[in-house]
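Hi C.,

You asked whether I'd gotten around to modeling the 180-residue construct. I have! Everything is below, sequence then structure, no commentary in between.
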Amino acid sequence: MTEAWYMDDSLEDQRLPHRLDPPQPVSYDGLKKIGVLYWKLNPKTFKEDGTLDKIRKDRGYTYEDCIECHPEKMENYDAKLKMFFEEHLHTDEEIRFIADGSGYFDVRDADNRWIRIKCCPGDLIILPAGIYHRFTLDEKDYIKAMRLFIGEPVWKAHNRPADDMECRKQYVKDLQSTES
């Protein structure tokens, strides 16, 4: 299991861990309650062992590409990282398999508190449509991730506030039904 925790409110460098003091870890069950799904795959053998293929088939993922975030690998690196860190949602799931490097996905819980999820090689994370989130690299400044989609990729991020969007309303409704 990857590591997840509630974040502090510091405005220091976004690439720092931003753990509360004392730390407040979040379990896999805690992530699952807000719709975040997670698998740990072997980053060296995932192509041969069939685990990712099974997940792709079961969930209907038909498109994939790869992204490398690093100052030397990405055009307009600083602007893109700033854009990734703006709080937003998507109308579709966000699916990432981390092949190399590391970074953080931050997601809002049901009480609107930030949870930081550390992603490392082998982590497959799925954020549900309609969840407010953001992404940043850690201090290593490098990640290589496979992006997966159902059908044609939808790249549009809808910055907060987007509470009137149907995907957000459905997400909130789903959250409320799991709390009951």
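If it helps when you're writing up: The longest helix spans residues 166-179.

Thanks,
B.
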